[in-house]
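Record pair follows.
FIRST:
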Amino acid sequence: MKVIIIGCTHAGLTAAKEILTNHPETELTIYERNNNFSFSSDGIFLYLKNQVKNLESIFTSSPSKIRQMGALVRDMHTVLNVDTQKKQIRAVDMQKGIIITDNYDKLIVATGANPRLPAIVGIDNSRVLLCKSFLQAQKIYTMAQSSQRIAIIGAGYAGVEFAESFAQKGYQVDLFQSSDQVLNNYFDVSTSEFVVKLLQKHHVNVHLNTNVTAFTEVTDLIIKLSTSSGDDFLEDMAIVCTGFIPNTRLFAKQLKMEKHGALLLNNYLQTSDPDVYAAGDCAVVHFNPTNKSIYAPLGTNAVRQGFLVSKNIYGNFYPYMGTQTTSALKLFGHNFAMTGLTLKNAKLHGLNAHSTVYQGNWRPDYMPYSEPATLSLVYNRDNRKILGLQLHSKKDLTQSVNTVSLAIQNSNTIDDLSMTDMFFQPNFDQPFNYLNIVAQTAVKHEKAAGFDNPRFTTLY
């Protein structure tokens, strides 16, 4: 069988390795427009704060390693078009200028995503940088060496992490967010306010409800940022972190897509063409808390989809179990993690959502250095199913969200979690684990509201 993979991102690389390991008889060709494979953009901020010493170490593979496994690797090749009817692609060798035509039996689309560029006048200024690829990371690092004032546009994970990296090195940092809270896709208002105070404590200037409307060159080394608030800011450089859009232009009018342009998939990661599969940031994921397909570009989703595609091109055996978009963040010594929906986002989806909060020590009070933890559990009153969890603490409790992620995937209820068997040892937790306690708080809340009707997954 002839298989072509377009793009060697996390998803493409995972698929390639699995195919070459388990089906070495497959004729596998990979097209990649760069010569660096599977760069982990999540690690850029770690490099900027010297936690990772070598930027090249963030790569998880290379063209030579994949060639050694048996693939025909055409790096530095841009795919010009794909004809899904003819099962044919055309690509250009960017070094030699030669155009080639190739055919496939199965096609795996792993083209990833591109940074989303907001409509800002002057965004093409040389001192305005993006933050996804290896080359972009190099530019950020190099320019920062001769800068003191850095603007960051967008306060999602990337923006907040960049702000921390530069603040710790003594830069003057201005963080701009168009909405009224940072990390609004991940955490509720109270946690976002805590993060803002943490950033401000470390001298990050946080500008909420503020759109950057223009970049204007003042000198070769200074740019002016104009904002919707009417204020102007002089900066040495700016980094745009306003999200991503799927890179799917090759398949316009050929494959079905959702509103963001992400490829729609079935349970086995097939597109609307059964011989074309997709994985990673170019495609949708099934979001279990709402039972709907959404666009959520995350490396965790990419590697899982890449693995499943490598199995399913040989027959539909591995269904995709979906995602809870579980994620975590370490910021100035504090640990944050989440899975599923916040209360606000759950209500925006029309769910009868409620939440309860536990604030208390994560282990017995008699233990030394027992620091407080805050957990917020979101659930659906109609069926008592868990919809999400957020936590933060100076103690690293982030692995706890993986437990709740599994609970959401398995349609567990607050009643299930309230009595789930978890070990007790005073070094680690209380007789009832903090996850038990926040679920028990939810059960008590429902009883007080007149909804004393427990539901256990084993009984229905």
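SECOND:
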Amino acid sequence: MTRSLYTRVVLTFLLSVIGGTIIAFFMSTWVFKDKLNENLKIPLLHFGQDIVRIYETLPLSEAELFVSGMKQLDSYHIRIYDETGQFQSYGSLNGHNPVTVTNEQLKEVLDGNIVQVNPNGVASFFLGLPLKTEMGTRAMFVEPLAPPSSAFTRNWAITFLTYSLIAGSLLILVAAIFLIRPIKKMTQATRRIAAGDFNVKLNIKQNGELGTLARSFEEMTHDLHQLEQMRRDFVSNVSHEVQSPLTSISGYALALKQVELTDNERSRYLDIIIAEADRMSKMSDSLLKLSLLESQSQQLQLVTFNLDEQIRRVIVAIQPQWSARNIRFELNLKPVRLMADYDQLNQVWTNILGNSIKFSKDGGVINVSIKQDNKNVMVRISDTGIGISLADQKRIFDRFFKADRSHSRKYGGSGMGLAIVKQIVSLHQGDIRVESELGRGTTTIVTLPITTSTN
């Protein structure tokens, strides 16, 4: 089995050229068979009739002398038979094998009939004519010879085709090298990617299918590189986030084994262990939920509901968080009917509003407004909190990312909330973005279609 694509391309080309040439030759011969025979028959008949007139006009001896000196004998061979089957030939055969004349053909011509025969089908023809002389009726058979020019033309054509095939084969060998080179590059790049090296540059500038394939391959490599980096960051972040509560739980559990602890200390240690365990549980739930959302195995449960009423319910549900810090809300919620997953969007508003409360100053204000057009609804949630730097805004929706790690202990959280929000909004075919400036608060803008497709 031929495994090399280069070899297959070359062999396919050669077989196609050779096969096509042979098929074309036989097809053209078959199509023009009658035309070829006709072109050969007419001159042969005219030449034979001229010979008959010579014998009818001149005495036998003069006619034989005249015919033997004709220049047309370079192209034709003549045999004149008498009644006994003896014949006189005129013209040199030059290696040509004359057609055998049968007794039936000879008798038919001697009886005064014209015989036309195609012994080999195409471009092969001989003619029998009755010839009346002083010595009685004789049978003349005329057949064409391949003239020197025809032999030269045939040899030249064969030589030309041979060299054309050789030159064409050499050209296709060279062309195939350039054709296969990009594929070889991609094969080598695939091996490097399999080994974990994603810094692959193909530098293939071709157009067409190979160019498209090369560009798609480079895009795939880039995506794989990002995916691998995300995987490493994910492992690192999970390890870090899990290690911190585990260290606290382990440390305080060991401290509980001390006999001299007071009841207050023991209770405080237990509270810390419970809080850290609860934080790990929430992080585990968030990871599971995000994994389900990203795999899209969790189908959206679409219902039609009032979006403004849902946001009001969320604000009321989280009242203990904002009322304790004297944070107030300014609402501009126009009535909007929306088809979406109620529970999923409920978590979106809970997470976004929770972040706004978390990072706002005591006594701050949070603005929530809704705008609607023919196809989409836009929800803006603005706070007057600590804000987010421009560099951090690019990664704010990455899992485990915390905009200000120096405040992570103060504000808590695992950095999973906005990643979940982003995925839920994407599943609804919507968009979420953040506008923020350090020290001047943050505005989160969520755009959703009025009717979410189930596809």
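COMMENT: The chain is about 55% helix and 15% strand.
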